Amino acid sequence: MTRLEKQMTAKSEAQAIGEIEFQIMWNRLIAVVEEQAQALRRTAFSPIVRESGDLSAGYFHPDGRMIAQAVTGTPGHVNTMAASVLHFLRIYPAHSMHDGDVYITNDPWMGTGHLHDFVAVTPAFYQGQLVGLFASTCHFMDVGGIGFGPDGRDVFEEGFYVPPLPLITSGEIDKTLITLARSNSRYPAEFEGDLMSLVACNQIGVNRLSDMLDEFALRDLNPLCDQIVIRSRAAALKAISTLPQGVAEAEMVVDGYDRPVTLKATARIDSDHISVDFTGTSGLSARGINVPLSYAQAYSTYAIACALFPDVPNNSGSLSVVTVTAPEDTIVNAPRPAPVSSRHVIGQMLPDVVYGCLAHLVPERVLAEGASALWNLILEDAHDACLTQGIAGTRRFSALSVQTGGTGARSRLDGLSATAFPSGVSGVPIEILETLTPLVFWRKELRPGSGGAGEYRGGLGQSIEIGHREGHPFYIYAALDRIQNPARGRFGGENGGPGKVALKSGGILKGKGKQLVPAGDRLVVETPGGGGYGPSAKRDAESLAADRQNGITEQMRKP
Amino acid sequence: MKPRINRASADIGGTFTDIVIEIDGIRASTKVLTTHQAPERAVIEGVFGLLQKQRLGLADIDIFLHGTTLATNAIIERRGARTALITTRGFRDTIEIGSESRHDQYDIFIKKPQPLVGRGLRYTVAERVAADGSTLLALDENEVEALAEKLEQAQVESIAVSLINAYANSSHEQRVREILSARLPRTYFSLSSETCPEIREYERTSTTVANAYIRPIMAGYLGRLKSELSEKGMKAPILLMTSGGGLTTVEQAADYPIRLVESGPAGGAILAAKIAQECALDKIISFDMGGTTAKICLIDHGEPLKSRSFEVDRTERFLKGSGLPVRIPVIEMVEIGAGGGSIAQVDSLGRLTVGPESASSEPGPACYGLGGRHATVTDGDFVLGRIDTRKFADGRMTLRRDLAEKALATHVGGALSLGPVEAAAAVTAIVEENMSNASRVHAAEHGKDLRQRAMVAFGGAAPMHAAQLARKLSLVSVVIPKGAGVGSAIGFLEAPMAYEVVRSRHSRLDAVNDVAITELLASMQLEAKAVVFPAARGLPIDMRVSAFLRYVGQGHELEVGIPVVSNGRIDARELKDAFDQRYSEVFGRFLPNHEIEVLTWAVTASATQPVPVADLAPIGTRESVSPSGTTNFTDMDGMTADAPIYERTELAPGVLLTGPLVVTERETNTVVPTGFTVECNSFGHLVLTNLAAQAALSA
Questions:
Q1: Residues A167 and A274 reside in one and the same domain
Q2: Contact B165/A431, CB-based, under 8 Å?
Q3: In contact, B254 and B223? CB cutoff 8 Å
Q4: Which residues of B touch A44 (CB under 8 A)?
Q5: For the whole model, what pTM was predicted?
Q6: Across the A/B interface, how many CB contacts are shorter than 8 Å?
Q7: In-domain check, residue A229
Q8: Do B587 and A42 count as a contact with CB atoms less than 8 A apart?
Q9: Residue where one domain finishes, among candidates A332, A365, A398
């Protein structure tokens, strides 16, 4: 410590932190949570975590404010984690926590919206004082129940449920909880391994925070946290203050489980606040595509942050300028015990609706509609069908293959082909999937003609074809949308191509639900393209020529 | 006593080509401007010039060592060959689909990296190999035949062949080359099963395509260099530095030029490793800071950390994921946009950011007076009195303080209400914090602790920031090696002649004792030896075998070294214990009840050259030394006062000086702030000591 730093530190504890010192400490805190996330990814067992980055990690003030988070692929986790920590603190007040405790839950309403994600919270103590909480979340391979699909009629069918509970108390692991968890998963080793990964990554956060406090000779991070929150809020407010004020509505219809779902939003930009309300949205779905409110809030807020203040770090300060509401018993505010397993298929559509509103107010800041919800192909062995059909020795497997369509075109750029948005996870290499399963991918390439035409073209979807190595039947747990309702263009841009789920032999499959790909047949999937932005007559000649040369606007050919 | 080997080395950079020769163990160096049209010209002229001064010729050179950024630049500037890609039917767009993610989660206007081969030149053929190497669909040879005409019409110079699962069975790729090369004899072929025989189709294809893209240029350049040098009388073999820190032959380099992409920084890491050995430093952090980026590398027991993946041409702000992935053996380092030319600005949030945008050499920092308007790290260093202005660029350039201050006031001071010196201090504080954070995260990713390490700092900008970085990381010692300015070219001279062969073979650990793995390892050892043998010139060849392991179900592997047994067999138990131990080191504890699997095997053959005994060290001899000037120096506490400037060439071993002071030499300045001492050790390296960290350590 130099004299200057000591002075700055002393001052900071009294009142405010020196400018440069503050920025350095903020960067350090971000480095701490990045390291936490890195450890989770490297130790995780679930392929969607280790290959696709379906995880999040962050630091919270002891009072529950979210202060810093790692940049990972999951806005749905990050912003719901902010709510989770408050639930943990309500049930286990800060004063009751001990050094060496770890709390977990997969409660969809207190966590990230479905049972497949576990949240772990670890209190960080420094010199006997609680100085923060580290939280992390990742997707687990299997939590029992009917598997990862939308067919559940209530949350009880969807799997093993762990309310907020201590997994570790003062360093002592709850063996009963581990035994129960293992007994309730089809993949117990991976289940336990992933729980331990959450524990390990939070612990790395705790250790690094302690190093940081040592180095800066601080007893706590209260002044730093206050500054981060105050400044981020101020920056978000400043960004909002330059926007045109007003109210705008938008409505979008998507396929739903068994009938179309209307998503309706009203957005309001005030001088110091933005609100989104989903009144007018369809009621609950009979099956598991319902969305707990915190997940709907997470994706709506994320959409607003991307469009209106992308440079402001995501924390309680910046989140405080946005309010997202929805009437209870709508599909975007589904109460327990509604089935919610595939909540992403609706939740990840919400940014398109929010942008539908913002398009009236700040047209240059929004995208056209895109494929939006991930086209995850959840594929499993059809053990029962094999028994029925007398096929012996089929290999057990469960694969979550993240697949993406095209994003909507931007106000000055084409949409991105085969790219996740609003989720930010990556795909799993097919060569990896083929080592884990008996599946064979016969095709995975861009789908010409699927990007909505426009001054700026929508991103392309993909054509995918999958068979079983031995010709055995297998299951798809479909939670796929935009088959009847493609992504719409904006401002004269055309619609993106609709998605499709079918059999190679010709049969059409439904977008939702567990279905069999019969013995010897193959699954054929076309992921949706993104909508265009602006009329195609305005597209420049160079881009048109490039599209032609690359063969990406030609009509679909027979494979 | 054996006669010494006379050696020359050349490092071609974007602006300068650095040349070092070593004759009878004595080194000389020069910097000449890179000749982009025909890079061999600068190399030959530079080497020739140095030799002439000693009345020697190219015939007196025994080994010629070479590294270059030409391969990297060809990719970044998209100046590669007209390249086609042939892949499995159904996978035409693998290199465009990429990871399907976005490298910036909040920026809706991102651009993804453009593949090196556009869709129009990507062709597919009917064939399919399974994950276990068996054939699911035979190669349609008629289709391949038919492709030849299309490729000819498209005037393709280079072809990448990357088929699905070819890492497990290369026969279809080889057959494609056989058929096509008969029809297209002048075309270069790069097969994924040879360039990068590893699982993960996107990374393997991307690597193969990058190799194909630069191959005609690099093969042409290397061929010309070799023939011109031999015409001019050089008989010595030319060895190329690889990004993995080993050396390889011209022929191998011409076939796999992608292995050269980071050869310059690799040379720097090798130099740092050598310094560590020389100074008996068991664990160091190597810190290389140039004009645009800073490279940080951890070196334990004299050996840099290795990795097998890298991204070239990051499109946006050096963000992870915004570049083209290449899977090649590389020295593991973190590279961030923090160099002398890094630009400082205040963002909408009132946050001061420095880099990664760089003013580079044109227009350069504001103080150069070449039209640069942005405030850069160099402007900050200058205003803080860290640069001996009398010596800058050999006195050929006068630095303009007014312009530096104006740029700092406009872009930093105004928005933050700071005076010019405070603004300069803020800029350097931010860039130093960025580097220390990058160092910490990098160390953490590898389960390494930074404390107790010494730092070795080189590159034009590093010695000005090394002390402050050491203070932030609580390091006691900083070594500024002799010849810091041409560090990479010196590093080439220190590199072991090494070659790494990597193969993916996926199996449970308990199944590794089988014949196939034994045979595989034997053939890999033969392959590696074959490359190293001609260059080893009689030196003994060491073999190192390692495996990349993980718990079944995980997606990331850890490398574990394997003792080579005479019969080539692997002891699975020993390997398990080694893995568990390594896992505990990195992640705190291992998982006793989980099965382990192996994904990849690696074999490295190397021949280490004897360390040259002595250098012509420009070490002073006087017992006391007086400063050659003073500078108005701003210390770490923000106080500004006159501080002495010493000439590096006058510092003798044994002389101990106490900061604040600046040590100056031709290519850089070493800043020694209050709280640090500096001395020259017997090898001619400057050693800075952080007194506070030293006191804390002994307390």
A1: no
A2: yes
A3: yes
A4: 554-555
A5: 0.86
A6: 211
A7: no
A8: yes
A9: A365
